[in-house]
């Protein structure tokens, strides 16, 4: 049989292929020749054939038929054969294939070989693809090589030990004696791998971390090594862009960060060296920036001095001026993490951060926007809002929603005056009205209602905005509501804050009627407009025109609009004597701290008097078929269904997924019929109103809080109270917080309990959980619990555009909550 072609010739031939098909033909032809050679047990050219097979594997072609040939090469006594054999084993084998166990004995023999290079090959292979079984069998040999005086073998043994610890953590103590002398080695390769090994041990075992802190005195040794690296002169072996061994410096800084976290003594010991690294490292090259970034992370994670933290933030501030976009992004991300703890230090770089809003890179703009909102306070609110509103005008559509939400939150928290607050929100609505959150309209209406002295000014501003643009639906809705409430102030020209405009009643009605017929108006906007026209019947003199408009929409194809018109017509005809009182101005709205209930929740088809103290419960607002479908899915035999007390923003079909939520709540008891839901609806919207209080006052009880859920940045805490006068009723308030960097929208909390309990789930305070723990969503649960409480919860929300759904079971309620 002729000698097979060399690897270099194969590469040259494959590169001459003009098409993919031609290349495949060459590869198939060569693979056939290699297979024939393997079948004939050709030992002379086995090494060459495996080398060519590895090249084909790197090109993406199958090469699994060469696995056993790799094992034969490993068993060979020639170093060249072993080298190719071990390389093939690392590329073609992994722990999922049983073939790799056949090489355990070969690796053990090679670890005890007389030649260091053969030992090095065995260590590299074990550290690359060794399974847990292989690691257990060969850990002793690795530990012996870790104590050898040969620096070439020690550095490879240290890396191999890292792999062994990852695969079999319980073997960690075996390597502890060998680590004592590793940091005294002068060879930088051994130092580097030793620091990697120590880092792995500290990260995986709190006991090891405490041992290295106290018994081994590891921090002083690392400080000494780092100081020698900084103060040493030029060394051609380790110099990178004028800095001595930056890779080792970065590794040492990471290990110091782990050792100094939450430890006063260790942090104190490393403060001085961190200051030296921060001040002596050259920043003109990227190598120096990498070391400075690791230094900043270490300073922020340990219990460092305040001056050192300011120095770290100033380094990040210099990073913001760098031309490299990656460095600027890293700086903004790091500042965003530290702004809560070192707010004043970050404030010094506010102008630089605001300048990043003008960057062309979208990721930098987003980070700069998030950091700018985090820097807003009562002292800089006017200047920061001016910059952010300018950014809102010119930014891409993908930023407008988040930017508008941030402006709303900041204005609500730090507004210097009500007029400024109203002007700011109106500016947002006129520039990005289509991107604001759904709750912005009621929030602005509440703000306007409570600002009594600003009513005339606000309605005049909104009327002008309505004349200019009716495409921004939230703006149109707020304007319609205000014109309906304060239209008489608009017509009378009582505005003192700015020059009043002359408007007639007919002009105002023309604008509102134009909204009703405009193609730009959404169904909700038309409802606002029709209601505004109806309210003006008690504020304007042209009642006949209003009656005519209302009667026209009594036959509208829009069911919501038709129902409103029919109701309003009934007011004109049957209840005209009540119309002025019903349509009078809204009173000042008080924003309650805790979210109160709005409706009665049905439990087992009827309201339980001992749980809910209400004589005339309002009807359930959900449609009958939707509620019945939900109850069928919940299964009345085992669980008590919970119907949300507010209409969700998403379609109600999502409630049907509660079947998974309650799937394995195995409970004993006699099956009961599926519960029914009261679906009666008053014939007239004004009927069924009740002024009865829904719940009695809640008396605080000494019940410790608990964390029911903490995953993917979402944390759900439960606090407990006892209701008066019935001590059997436990009142649970959930507090949902979000530690991620983006808001969690469309947040829905659902719960289910066994049938022996009765449960009410009240409406949440919001469906958006703010990012970075800047706020919480609260929701109240009332439980009649005669015995130990169990609960299954389901959480759904949207994070960065992706829907998230999770289930959890809560069984560790404090005994005081049910005893």
From TrEMBL:
Chain coiled-coil ranges: none
Topology in membrane: Peripheral membrane protein
Locations listed in the record: Cytoplasmic vesicle membrane; Endomembrane system; Golgi apparatus
A family per Pfam: Alpha_adaptinC2
InterPro entries (UniProt xref): Adaptor_Complx_Large_Subunit, AP1_complex_gsu, ARM-like, ARM-type_fold, Clathrin/coatomer_adapt-like_N, Clathrin_a/b/g-adaptin_app_Ig, Clathrin_app_Ig-like_sf, GAE_dom
Gene Ontology BP term (one): vesicle-mediated transport
GO CC terms, sorted: AP-1 adaptor complex
Domain annotation GAE: ranges: 701-814
Principal subcellular localization: membrane
Keywords carried by this UniProt record: Cytoplasmic vesicle, Golgi apparatus, Membrane, Protein transport, Transport
Record flagged with keyword Protein transport: yes
SUPFAM superfamilies linked: ARM repeat, Clathrin adaptor appendage domain
Keyword Protein transport: yes
Similarity comment: Belongs to the adaptor complexes large subunit family.
PANTHER family linked: ADAPTIN, ALPHA/GAMMA/EPSILON
Protein name: AP-1 complex subunit gamma
Protein's organism: Gasterosteus aculeatus aculeatus
Biological classification of the source: Eukaryota, Metazoa, Chordata, Craniata, Vertebrata
